[in-house]
Amino acid sequence: MSTILNRFYKNQGSIYKVLLCIVSTILIVYLFPKSGKFQFDFQQNKPWQYDNLYAPVDFAILKSQYQLEQEQAAVENNIIPYFIYDQDIANEAKAAYENQFASVFTDSIFRNRQRELKAFGLKILDEIYKYGVISDLTAFQEGRKIYLRRGNEIEETSIENLNTTDEITTLINRKLVNGPYVQAVNRFKELFFDVVQPNVNYDEKLTNKELNAEMSKIAPTKGVVNKGSRIVAKGEIVEQSTYQILKSLQAEYESQTWTASKYNWVVFGYVLLVAVALTMLLLFIKTYRELVFENNTKVTFIFFNIILMVLFTTLIVKYDANYVYVVPLCILPLVIKAFFDSRLGLFTHVITILLLGFIVPNTSEYMFLQVIAGIVTILTVSELYKRANLFISVGQITFIYIVGYFAFHIIHEGTVENLEWETFSTFIITGLATLFVQPLIYAYEKIFGLVSDLSLLELTDTNSKLLKDLANKAPGTFHHSLNVANLAEAAANEIGANSMLVRVGALYHDIGKMVNPTDFTENQSTGINTHEDLSPRESARIIIDHVINGIEIARKNNLPDRVIDFIRTHHGTSTVYYFYKKAQEQDEDVNIEDFRYPGPLPFSKETAILMMSDSVEAASKSLKNPTSVLIDSFVEKIINRQMDENQFLNATITFKEIQVIKKVLKSKLNNIYHLRIEYPE
User: Fold this and answer.
1) The whole model's pTM is what?
2) 88, 171 Cβ separation under 8 angstroms
3) Where does the record place the HD domain (predicted)?
4) C-beta separation of 662 from 635 below 8 A
5) pLDDT digits (tens, 9 = 90+) for 623-653
6) pLDDT category of residue 7 using cuts at 50, 70 and 90
7) Residues 461, 462, 466, 468: is their CA dihedral positive or negative?
């Protein structure tokens, strides 16, 4: 039992990654559509790349979306709208007219003609309410037929027969100006303005019911392809009619009723493909990014982002596949690059696009555009902590999307006349959404405990509490750290390493000296050396302990692990040579291990650069009369000794890069110790 537990404990990292891969596969497949995948990839106005295709079954030819929209528009234009005539309002208007007539026509000139005026007004009122009064008709076309419903009776008439409230005045003028009652025009206007009320309303419910009934009669298909008929020949251009037949066959295949057995096989196929893709990603990380692979949190972070992109894309496709480019997929390589490196960011991006190819329409176009956009993202964003770089990159990503879409449209349509300008706005939205990467990186740092260049930039602030304490308690060490930071940053820039990371590591690598600052020569301003009263072994132990003390201080101040790595490795497994030789003078059999730093060895370009820069800068203080030749040989001697001691055995650094670093350090030290002419007193 204990043997099994021991094996489990030793392999728990590998077991976790296997489980992570299985869980991720299940989640991604769960999000995928479970219909069969059409085996042919085709595009309009491009050659058919496969063998002659014959209809495997009888199937109906679906109408294109454009044809359906045209037929629907025709139905909408031809539908006869319904209006409701309210007889009660018409009766109330007539009653009000009867009651108010006498009070309006009180002048002496109308007194003897009130009966005929009243009858004339009633005739006009009957004409106004013959088909009724409506408040507004601007939403309806002129000359259109309508159905006017009076109670249980429906009458077909023209929309011009309805009167609007604005037309009442025109009707009164037309009836009275050229007639015998011209003097009564203003009185009738005043009276009708008070009594005439709209009594016709648009019956939207009944009209929509009729519209839906007519829409349901539109057939989604236009003919049938018989089994065995040739659909397209190899090399033949897929024209619009052929393209629609192929789309119909694809829809028939993907919408067919699946038995439980077929459904399970489809799911199993998806599981295999997704598992293979995720396994390839794990193998890539294991082969080329071993440090990332050994960290379960980092591997989980990468898989989490892949699942997140698949989730968002699936939701958009289910809502409306036309908006698939709204998902800012370029955030993925940006995030991975911010926490790891460009190569891993691009590989993760490509794997994600391969997975999304199962669910998006126009797979080849989508994959081409997204891969190109991902490459542009990786190539353009060199320093994410500089805000201008992100805006420039977003502009270039958006431009690439637009150019790619434009090119594909020309290939498919052979013209630019029917460009869908809304798609361009989709790409602009995608670009703007990519700017969300900065707050997202901040959230990821807090959730997963990772460190990006943005956080590293904050750590370079010498006004931070920890660096201020270092400057106050150990000013010599602080000055030494600044010099090392400048040397290391210059060397990192020259070989393409992470200059921001190595600068931060250099600033904090000696913070352990704050515990006993006067035990280190750079802080002994009084000229008193505390080591004169100590044995070489005790002195060596104090010097070596500054690494352990530095790690403890860093953890208390919540410095990231990436920075603590520089504290742990900046001396590797080298020896405190001065005190070792001093101990040998007292005892030739002294154990060298008592004078050796615990390690580990530097394991990256950045940590190796710091070891070289730290050793060279510290030892350069011993040069009494530095010259260019002396500095060059001095740098060669120190770094060659480190190489002979195999201090860079685990670092991903080449001999060529070490030679470049030597050259940079020599140049910088020559600038620091440049010779001046001796001025007379």
Assistant:
1) 0.62
2) no
3) 477-619
4) yes
5) 777 788 888 888 999 999 999 999 999 888 9
6) low
7) negative
**Is residue 550 a contact partner of residue 509, using CB atoms and an 8 Å limit?**
yes
User: What is the β-pairing status of strands 153-158 and 82-85?
Assistant: unpaired
Instruction: Report yes or no: 467 and 449 within 8 Å, Cβ to Cβ.
Output: no
Residue that wins the pLDDT comparison between 498 and 276: 276
- Cα angle for residues 133, 134, 139 (degrees, 5° grid): 150
The CA radius of gyration of the chain, in Å to the nearest whole number, is 42
Q: At residue 211, does pLDDT exceed 80?
A: yes
| Mean predicted lDDT score pLDDT of the chain | 84
Distance CA 426, CA 433 (A): 10
Facing residues of 147 across strands?
A: 82, 156
Contact call for residues 470 and 481 (beta carbons, < 8 A): yes
Q: Are strands 221-225 and 59-62 parallel, antiparallel or unpaired?
A: antiparallel
| Amino acid present at 379 | L
Residue range(s) in the chain whose domain bears CATH number 1.10.3210: 454-674
Alpha helices in 416-464 (DSSP H): 421-434, 437-448, 453-459
> Do the Cβ atoms of 134 and 198 come closer than 8 Å?
yes
- pLDDT tens across 156-194, in order? 888 888 888 777 777 777 777 666 677 777 777 888 888
CA-based nearest residue to 596, from 650, 544, 651: 544
The one-letter amino acid code at 550 reads G
